[in-house]
Amino acid sequence: MGMRDLAYGAYERRLAARIDPGRCPRHIGVIMDGNRRWAKAVGEHIATGHQRGADKIHDLLEWCEEAGVELVTLWLFSTDNFNRPAAELEDLLRIIEGSVRSLAETGRWRIRPVGALDLMPGDFSRTLKEIAADTADNPGLVVNAAICYGGRQEIADAVRSLLSEHAERGTTIEDLAQVIDVEHITEHLYTRGQPDPDLVIRTSGEQRLSGFLLWQSAHSEFYFCEAYWPAFRKIDFLRAMRDYAQRQRRYGA
Fold first, then answer.
1. pTM above 0.90, yes or no
2. 189-214, pLDDT tens digit by residue?
3. Which residue among 44, 77, 196, 210 is buried most deeply as judged by most CB within 10 Å?
4. pLDDT-based confidence at 1, cuts 50/70/90?
């Protein structure tokens, strides 16, 4: 082990020691951005960037477990990704499916796909639903795999689901308009029944949500990291955790 590795390990331990375990986020959302830019920066194919990003997920989930996080939402594929070139899209879907399978094969985590899954190719959608059923009783943290996910799409789907439910009950639009509130919509989101994210991390230096968990992140804390996702290190994660622990959350007050 070289001096650089020793210094890195010492710094990592100091960071971890300074984080108050009582101020750990329960739910973390992660916008895993920068796979393509990382690939271009190191002279690799774009598919290699996506694969390195997928490989990084195992590390992240282990770090989250060590920290005491209960729920992680990973943005793996957005509805906007359908606009990418056909060859890249094919590689990306293959890599995502392989990544979700590998997470399931550990037997450690409960994988819960969230998104407009019916917009995905039929075999892919069925595979995701089978993985969700097969991992439902796993003991570890819950992993929301946000696939074919867009925040506006989620809210539109929630409203559509709410209207359909009340139409089946015979509720008129006029009656529904009198009683509908925030909780009614929340109960129809992809993440219904789950706590909202306490912390949202975005890599690659971009400082925007791009539609990620639009409804749920109203009171979340945000942490923007310069590192591209494939280069995201444990010290980057620990810095995010330290930053979160030092904040005074006001929930909009």
1. yes
2. 999 999 999 999 999 999 999 999 99
3. 77
4. low
With H, G, I as helix, E, B as strand and everything else as coil, classify residue 212: coil
Question: Does 224 count as an annotated binding residue?
Answer: no
User: What token pair was written down for 219?
Assistant: 């009171």
Which parts of the chain are beta strand (E)?
A: 27-31, 71-78, 110-114, 142-149, 199-202, 221-224
Cβ neighbours for 38, distance < 8 A, ≥ 6 positions apart: 44, 49, 52, 53, 228, 229, 230, 231
Six-digit token string for 180? 């509908």
Neighbouring residues of 190: CB distance < 8 A, sequence distance ≥ 6: 114, 115, 144, 146, 149, 154, 157, 158
Q: Please name the residue that has the structure tokens 């920066």.
A: 41
CB contact burial 15-41 (16+ within 10 A = b; e otherwise): bbeebeeeebbebbbbbbbbbbbbbee
Selection from 110, 25, 39, 111 nearest residue 76 by Cα: 111
Inter-residue long-range contacts of 39-42, CB under 8 Å, 24+ positions, other chains counted:
39/230, 41/228
Does 209 appear as a known binding residue? yes
Annotated ligand binding at 44? The verdict is no
First to last CA, the chain: 49
For 219-233, the DSSP string reads T-EEEE-SS-GGG--
Go through the domains of the chain in sequence order and give each one's CATH number: 30-155+196-245 (3.40.1180.10)
